[in-house]
Amino acid sequence: MTSDDINGQVRGFLAGHLANPDLTDQDDIFVTGGASSLFAMELVMYIESTFEVELDDEDLERDNLATIGAITALVATKRGLVTESGDA
Amino acid sequence: MTTRGDAALGEFREEFTEFADRHLVPRAAEFDREERIPADVVAAVVGAGYLGSQAPVERGGRGLDMASYGALHEAIGKGCSSVRSLLTVHDMVVEAVLKLGSKRLRDQWLPALLTEGKIAAFALSEPQAGSDAASIRTVAKPDGDNYVLRGTKRWISFAQIADVFLVIARLDESGELGGFLVPRDTAGLEVQPISGMMGLRASMLGSLTFDHCRVPGEARVGARSMPGALIAATPLHLGRFGVAWGSVAIAQASMEASFRYAESREQFGKPIGDHQLIARKLTDMAVETEAARLLCVRAGELRDTASPEAIGATLMAKYHASRTAVAVASDAVQVHGAIGVHSAAPVERWFRDARIMEIIEGSTEIQQLMIARRERARLQRGAS
Question: ipTM higher than 0.90?
Answer without folding.
Answer: no
